[in-house]
Every structure is written in structure tokens, then in C-alpha cells.
Amino acid sequence: MPEFPHAMLREIYEQPEALTRTIDAYLSGTSLKTEVAALLKGWSNPDGEVLIAASGSSRHAGLAAEILLEDLCGLAVDVEYASEYSCRGGSERRHPSTIVLSQSGETSDTLAALREARRRGHHTLAITNAAASTMAQEAEVSMPLLAGVEKAVPATKSFTCQLAVLYALALYEAARLGQFDEAQVEAHVKALRSLPQAIAGQLDSWRALMFMLAQKYAAAASFLYLGRGVHYAIAREGALKLKEASYVHAEGYPTGELKHGPNALVSDAVPLVVLATVDRTLEDSVVRYEKTLQLLADMKAQGAKVIALANAGDKAVEELVNDCVEIPEAPEHLLPILEVVPLQLFSYFMALEHGVDVDRPRNLSKAVVEQPAG
Questions:
Q1: With contact defined as beta carbons under 8 Å apart, do 110 and 136 qualify?
Q2: Per-residue model confidence as pLDDT tens digits over 224-244
Q3: CB contact at 8 A, 213 and 220
Q4: Considering the domain 201-353, what is its CATH architecture?
Q5: pTM value surpassing 0.70
Q6: DSSP H stretches of helix in 74-132
């Protein structure tokens, strides 16, 4: 039985069970629960527009959802910083359905965004880890997570459960819009259901590897995290986890943007973390992967230090990088749930290397709420 000296590590290990509970709440066997479909009926905008408002890790889940809903459902999706949307002002002719994401359901900026969306007459959906939270109560529709209590400030199991609920929502929308037939929905549900076991089977090996990599890269001044498509959201999340947990600077970029400026930073003191997984059944994923391979080759010639996340057994990536983290194969849009777990572990062990109280990083709180005046 693994030992958990910190809540963050325990919550990382709780993800298989948390995901299973959350998936079971919305899916029955290999199909969507009829009561969930009834709950969501009438929520969607007839014009197919969706706005997602969130902050922090929840916004990164929203960035992944943007790709999910556009690729799988054909919807038009915008992702806003909740803090900006709630006070942007101006007139708006569009009337998108609005999704707010928040672990606590009490985040002040996101709650303000929800209330602004309601003021504008938008249909609203809240995805939170607290079924009785203010957001869950004020939104037209609530899709609570079943992640369980999350004590550490850095979000781990709540983030992967957000991705799972958003995937279930995307499957519902894809079926409703005729993008998926029954057999396609069944295949996607089976793939989603396989993830908890896949994560459980890798946790110990990821833990050992990320412990070693944290020791190896502890002296780095900064990291650049790179991902394409839906993986860009995980690059952003991995960089945020490192910043908030270990106080080591990191930034997430689209992989193709590295040479448009950030490459000037790459040095022995600034390694790269590159998401280089692939779904070989999807042509677009293969194209993105091949472009990433070319960038990795260029970075090797440049002398960059690179940690890559790649499919298990991918020798092409392994030969081009300093260190390779193996990810079980999965459909393109489910790979993020797998990819983020070793990145959470890396941030955890980097925090220990830097002597940080990983459960309670300085200047941060679990829920960012309005402070009383005076």
C-alpha cells in the first residue's frame, strides 16, 4: 500500500476511484443515462454556440472542452477567463449557452461570470465538486463531480473528474446533434470507462519516474510545456501545477509557437516538457504527432533538454529526447486525462525538492472568494 505523506499525493492516487464514481454518475453501462439526457434537454443553444467561463485549473479543463465540443459535436466554443468576462461590459448580440467550471462552486470571479451570463439571458450549466454550492444552485443545470473532498490547494482529482464530465457532456451533444450514432457513443463510453484502470496500473511506475526526474531537473530555473490541439490545455495545466506547487516558473505554449519567440529562452536552465502522444486511428492526430517529432529533432540538434510524454513503446520519440514518460494508448480526446497525472506527480516531487509545503502553497487558497470589506 503506497504511503501518502501529503494530501496532494493521496488525492493523485485517489483519481481512479474518483473517476469511476464520476463516470458512473452520468453513464449507464455503455450509454448515457436517460435522466442525464432529460436534465440537459433544452440547455443547448439552437445556434450551436457555447461559452465557457472559469479560472485556474478549471479554465484549463475548459480549454480541453473547447476542442472536445468543437471536434466531436461541431459546436462553436469560446473560453473566457471568468475574471474578465464578469466585468467586460459592452453589448452582446450572441446568446451562447454558458458553462461555468469551479472545484468549489464558490469562486467569486466564476460566480460573477455565471450571474452575468444569467443577466444576459443565457442558458447556464455549472460543473462543480459541490452539489450544494452557490453555482450549482444558481445555474439552470448542475453536473456535479463525485471527486470527493480535495484538501490540497493544487487541484488533481477534481481536474480529471472535470474532464470526464465534460467528455460525457460532449457525448450527449454529439448524439443529440446526430454526429454520433449509437455504436459510436458506445465505443467512446467504453474508452472513457477504461481510463481509471489504466491510471491505476501506471501510478506506481509514474511515481518512481517523476521522483527521479524531479531530482534530475531540480536546479532548472524555468520550464516550457508544449502541446498541440487538446494537449495544449494539459501543457497549460502542467505548467500551472509546477508554479503553484513548487514555486518553479513554467509556461504552457502551443508546440508550434515555440519558434515564434519562446525558443530564445531554451537552455540548460530552461528544459522543455513536450506532449508527444498520438492516436494513430485519427489522421489529424498523426499529422500533429509528425510535426511534434520534427520539432523534437530540431530541439535535439539545438541541444535542448527535453522531457516528453509519449505512447508506451514509442521509440521514435524516445530517441529524440532526454527522458520519456510512457502514456497508455487512448483515443485522442481522452489522452489528456492520462497525460496530466504524471505531470501532477512531477510538480509534487519538484515541490519536495524545493522544500515547499505542497498542500498549502504560499499566497494561495483552495477557493478564491470575495473577502469582506473592512
A1: no
A2: 999 999 999 999 999 999 999
A3: no
A4: 3-Layer(aba) Sandwich (3.40)
A5: yes
A6: 82-85, 108-119
